[in-house]
Amino acid sequence: MKYILTLLFIALCQFAFAQDLRSVLIQQLKNTHNNKEWFVPANIAIDGLTAEQASWKDGSGNHSVGQLTYHLVFWNERQLANFKGEKESKFSGNNEETFDSFDKKTWNDLVKRLDAVMVSLEKIIADAPEAKLKEWAPTIANISTHNAYHTGQIISVRKIQKSWDPEKGVK
Predict the structure, then answer these.
(1) Beta carbons of 104 and 54 less than 8 angstroms apart
(2) Which residues, including other chains, have CB under 8 Å from residue 60's CB and lie 6 or more apart?
(3) What are the chain's domains?
(4) 79: Cβ–Cβ under 8 A, 6 or more apart, which residues?
(5) Which candidate, 65, 67, 73, 40, places its Cα nearest to that of 162?
(6) Given this model, what pLDDT does residue 91 score?
(7) Closest C-alpha to 151, from 21, 28, 22, 23
């Protein structure tokens, strides 16, 4: 009986850890997607921009908001495909190419794609088996860090462009 209770306790601890890990990872993704908490998430950072504003560059070699958004979509969609066991999109290995496929004509679609891939990542993490969740945890944390980093760049570009409303920031 003592042995069974010990096994049950271990199983419950593992379940609680998995739920806690899952909650943390989902919260990290949501904070970089659409939940304004410690920093501005991607959806708010790009909200209200026109295609022309998204294409603007400051002339110093910085990427445009559109290029940064395309880069996020590229890597998030690629990782989502990986999590699903699907074939990843073709990629030469040159990271600069992941910024260069932005086109003003596709800006509105790109905004929708960013939201959709973030929702899909959150869902796949919510539904992932415990073993996959543990395996993916470092990658998910890196996705969130990567998203937050480039979202910060988006806000910086918008500030230089004078298209950023400081009221959208975290108070």
Answers:
(1) yes
(2) none
(3) 2-168 (1.20.120)
(4) 121, 139, 143
(5) 65
(6) 87
(7) 28
Which residues in the chain land under pLDDT 50?
1-13, 16, 171
| Residue 27 pLDDT | 96
The reply to whether the predicted model has a pTM over 0.90 is no
Q: In whole angstroms, what is the distance from residue 14 CA to residue 156 CA?
A: 42
Question: Measured between alpha carbons, how far is 136 from 113 in angstroms, rounded to an integer?
Answer: 22
Query: What is the reported pLDDT for 32?
Result: 96
Query: How much is the pLDDT for 14?
Result: 52
DSSP codes, 32-80 = HHT--SSS--HHHHHTT--HHHHH---SSSPPPHHHHHHHHHHHHHHHH
Mean pLDDT over each residue of the chain, to the nearest integer: 88
140 contacts 148 by C-beta, under 8 angstroms: no
Closest C-alpha to 58, from 165, 169, 154: 154
Helical axes 130-161 vs 107-127, angle rounded to 10°: 150
